[in-house]
Write a structure and sequence with these properties.
Radius of gyration: 16 Å
Pfam family, one: DUF402
Number of helices: 3
Number of strands: 10
InterPro entries: DUF402 (IPR007295), FomD-like_sf (IPR035930)
Structural class: alpha+beta
CATH class: Mainly Beta
Number of domains: 1
Strand content: 25-35%
Order of helices and strands: EEEHEEEEEEEHH
CATH architecture: Beta Barrel
Organism: Saccharothrix tamanrassetensis
Strand order of the largest sheet: 7-8-1-2-3-4-5-6-9-10
Largest sheet: 10 strands, mixed
CATH topology: FomD barrel-like fold
Oligomer: single chain
Distance between the termini: 10 Å
Protein name: DUF402 domain-containing protein
Amino acid sequence: MGFFAPGDVALRREVLHGKPWAVTPTRVITDEPGLLVVFTVPGTVFGFPQHHFPHSWQTTGNTHWRGHGKLQMHRPGDAYSVDLYWQGPQRRFAGWYLNLQDPFRRTSLGFDTLDHELDYWVPAEGGWVEKDREDFERQVAEGKYTAGQGESIRRTGKEIQAALDAGETWWDPAWADFVPDPDWPVPTLPDGWEDYPLP
């Protein structure tokens, strides 16, 4: 698969148990061999294909992205993304969210992954907090993830904790100053988005 140009729309598709589970159209900021950065524009509508394991956002009526949008940074092979969040009327940078997920896989319309529920929050003022451990363990027990996947996710979590404790971060803190182009339209799901094939 080729690289996307800045401004292109790339579909971030989550694949669970071999079937598409959730799809979010994102705006490409940077796409190069070592880094893929995409932005979820405020108001972006999510797509939820039919699936035997309902997505929690779908069941709670969470249909679109709210707030200031979300920037997501991905390195090839990493089992997590680094997501940036902003808060309040002044769009104050809030922090970095290490979102454990499958390493991204390129597709003709974007990239595939799967959220792993377990996450780490690194606030702008320093420190870090583990998020959603109980939900993750419950989902392993319910069969969303296999026992092997569960062990791999826990191992990634320990590696992230060790890096954070050591103060080792690979991302450029200048991304905290990112400002989206106000003229960007909200990306939409293309016709046939439910049917485009897995790689």
